[in-house]
Design a protein that fits this description.
Elements: H1 4-7, E1 20-27, E2 30-37, E3 47-51, H2 61-72, E4 76-80, H3 102-114, E5 120-125, H4 127-139, E6 146-152, H5 158-165, H6 171-191, H7 207-219, H8 224-231, E7 244-247, H9 263-266, E8 271-274, H10 296-305
Parallel strand pairs: 3-4, 3-5, 5-6, 6-7, 7-8
Antiparallel strand pairs: 1-2, 2-4
Helix pairs in contact: 2-10, 7-8
Length: 309
């Protein structure tokens, strides 16, 4: 479930869809790049702001998949890159991390104020899901333009997720993330050679070691443990005041289902949990059904935003 959707050929899903590259300044020294796909009458349409997961970008296969469906359903679509992702290492002096929810609060404000959009849905996968849930809780009811949030397999408690990711049985995912994170750091170091000390980088074998040495201090955290604890959306879920859906699979290899079986989620007036037994990590591959393709979670997201589910 986790791996097959990544390699299943889908063709050029956004071919023919109008696209506008846009730069959002979210801090004095930081810019994020997004790609906007506007409906002919953008003010009359709802908007889906999409955010990818760890070591993804706005062109990840699932980002194109949900973007194509959302646009076809009549929504404006904004595919965001997190800091340094999608070839944007030069647009921020920092690395990206799971706590940078202020970036997306800034993007929402800009879309609401500059484009006068009034019904913005946040849709995030994995780390992106955590970031958007965190932003949703932090905003509370302060942003009238926010219509709702959908998070797919969000790592709302990074401490527990990293423990699972580093288990031997998850070596294939862990190795992938480690390889990509190290390559990104080397690209950052090439831009700012005096900032990053790469000595010993090759000997780092665990993502918790990488975060302790690089991600945490870069983000202003005392340690990896401090970073994991403070960056989790679990701390602000009780402050959410808009319709919010969490979709996770009970067999996700590194997002423990038990994180979501809590009173805060189970009894929250604005939170809905959808947790099928199978789906892997953001996979949810299904047999083709009448009027639906194999990508179950993409179809459910459109149902949720459209008010059909």
């Amino acid at each position: 479930m986790t791996l097959v959707p990544r390699y299943w050929s889908r063709g050029p899903l956004l071919a023919g869809v109008p696209s506008e590259r846009r730069v959002f300044r979210t801090a004095p020294d930081t810019q994020l790049v997004g790609f906007c796909h506007w409906q002919p009458n953008r003010l009359a349409a709802q908007t889906a702001l999409l955010l990818h997961g760890l070591e993804g970008d706005c062109d990840s296969h699932y980002m194109h998949g949900i973007a194509a469906k959302a646009y076809t359903a009549g929504l404006n679509v904004v595919r965001m890159n997190q800091r340094t992702c999608g070839g944007t290492e030069h647009l921020s002096p920092t690395l990206y991390n799971s706590g940078l929810s202020a970036d997306y609060r800034s993007v929402i404000r800009e879309l609401a104020e500059t484009e006068r959009l009034s019904r913005i849905w946040l849709i995030g996968y994995s780390m992106g899901g955590n970031l958007l849930l965190k932003a949703t809780g932090e905003m509370g009811g302060a942003e009238p333009a926010l219509a709702g949030t959908v998070a797919v397999c969000p790592n709302i408690d990074p401490t527990r997720c990293v423990v699972e990711l580093e288990r031997p049985g998850n070596w294939i995912y862990h190795r992938h993330f480690m390889t990509q994170l190290k390559a990104r750091l080397r690209r950052k170091a090439a831009l700012s050679p005096d900032k990053w000390d790469l000595k010993g980088l090759d000997r780092i074998s665990r993502i918790s070691e990488f975060d302790d040495r690089y991600t945490a201090p870069d983000g202003g955290y005392r340690s990896a443990a401090d970073y994991y604890d403070r960056s989790g959306a679990r701390h602000v879920l009780d402050r959410i005041t808009v319709p919010t859906t969490i979709i996770t699979a009970q067999d996700d290899p590194f997002i423990p289902y038990s994180m979501f079986v809590t009173p805060v989620i189970q009894q929250h007036a604005w939170l809905r949990l959808i947790a099928p037994p199978h789906g892997g990590h953001c996979g949810f591959f299904q047999r083709t059904r009448a009027h639906e393709d194999r990508y179950w979670v993409e179809n459910r997201i459109i149902d949720i935003v459209s008010g059909r589910w």
